[in-house]
């Protein structure tokens, strides 16, 4: 059965792979994009592109109104949009810390809060948050990013406890290194050093994260909530 899906940050990288994968599986998919033009391949799949910056509560509200009007209340939410502003602690500006937390953590709060309204009414729903291996492992130069991604774990587990009795699940995926614009910014030397730490000795393809999202959003995952699922090639083993 086709469900009303929203993927934030669906115009590129992991979010694009998630939107494509759910649309190909038969869901009715809306996705947010913040800048540029929506990708043609998602238009070809019939996905609805909604411009929205998740740091602006007004834009989030407008996006939900448009989605509800065009495809009904969101039944599956994938909170994927995120940024990094890497810098060592001593040199990190207040602004870089705040921007990353406001996007990755507070932005997720905004979209989950708004989605929960319709899900509570429907007494069902699936929420998947895209965190990172770095949230649990830590990473030099990423105190802002790691704090925001670790925050998603406590957030998801609290949401699970609040909404579980209405058959709404909330889970976290913690990807390792995925081949997207975010990691393409690293130098070849940095990439080489990272790959040495990964038991599976390679980066993930965005589609490998999308496959786990598809599972968590499926009927087969109805009894999974408050979980943190690593998709990291073994990088965070033990965390
Ligand atoms: P990209 O940088 O390729 O894409 C990020 C997406 O988030 C873009 O669609 C971007 O929109 C959107 N976005 C950023 N800020 C905002 C905002 N304020 N409002 C709305 N949308 C916004 O990243 P990835 O695809 O690599 O990452 C996707 C998610 O996965 C992120 O949460 C990231 O932290 C996480 N992740 C990534 C890993 C990796 O190795 N790549 C590893 C672990 C986790 P726009 O195009 O307008 O900038």
From TrEMBL:
Fetch the Gene3D superfamilies from UniProt.
Answer: NAD(P)-binding Rossmann-like Domain
Query: One of this protein's Pfam families, by short name?
Result: adh_short_C2
Which residue numbers delimit the Ketoreductase domain? 3-181
**Signal peptide location:** none
Report keywords, A-Z.
Fatty acid biosynthesis, Fatty acid metabolism, Lipid biosynthesis, Lipid metabolism, NADP, Oxidoreductase
Q: What is its EC number?
A: 1.1.1.100
Q: Which reaction does it catalyse?
A: a (3R)-hydroxyacyl-[ACP] + NADP(+) = a 3-oxoacyl-[ACP] + NADPH + H(+)
Is the keyword NADP in the record? yes
- Biological or metabolic pathway of the protein: Lipid metabolism; fatty acid biosynthesis
NADP as a keyword of this entry, yes or no, is: yes
Gene Ontology molecular-function annotations: 3-oxoacyl-[acyl-carrier-protein] reductase (NADPH) activity
- Record-stated family: Belongs to the short-chain dehydrogenases/reductases (SDR) family.
* Function, as annotated: Catalyzes the NADPH-dependent reduction of beta-ketoacyl-ACP substrates to beta-hydroxyacyl-ACP products, the first reductive step in the elongation cycle of fatty acid biosynthesis.
Outline the subunit composition.
Homotetramer.
What's the protein here called?
Answer: 3-oxoacyl-[acyl-carrier-protein] reductase
* Lineage, broadest ranks: Bacteria, Bacillati, Actinomycetota, Actinomycetes, Kitasatosporales
Q: Which gene encodes it?
A: fabG
């Amino acid at each position: 059965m086709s469900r009303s899906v929203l993927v934030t940050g669906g115009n590129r990288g992991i979010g694009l792979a998630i939107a494509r994968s759910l649309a190909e599986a038969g869901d009715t998919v809306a996705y947010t994009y913040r800048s540029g033009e929506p990708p043609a391949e998602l238009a070809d799949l019939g996905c609805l592109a909604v411009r929205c910056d998740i740091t602006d509560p007004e834009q989030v509200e407008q996006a939900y109104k448009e989605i509800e009007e065009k495809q009904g209340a969101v039944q599956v939410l994938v909170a994927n949009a995120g940024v990094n502003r890497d810098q060592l602690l001593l040199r990190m500006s207040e602004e870089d810390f705040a921007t990353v937390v406001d996007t990755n953590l507070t932005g997720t709060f905004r979209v989950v809060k708004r989605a929960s309204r319709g899900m509570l009414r429907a007494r069902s729903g699936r929420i998947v948050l895209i965190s990172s291996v770095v949230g649990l492992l830590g990473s030099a130069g990423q105190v802002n990013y790691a704090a925001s991604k670790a925050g998603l774990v406590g957030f998801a587990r609290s949401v699970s406890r609040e909404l579980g009795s209405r058959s709404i699940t909330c889970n976290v995926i913690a990807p390792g290194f995925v081949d997207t614009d975010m990691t393409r910014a690293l130098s070849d030397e940095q990439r080489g050093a990272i790959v040495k730490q990964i038991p599976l000795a390679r980066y993930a393809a965005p589609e490998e994260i999308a496959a786990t999202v598809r599972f968590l959003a499926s009927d087969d995952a109805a009894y999974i909530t408050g979980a943190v699922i690593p998709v990291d090639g073994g990088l965070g083993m033990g965390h």
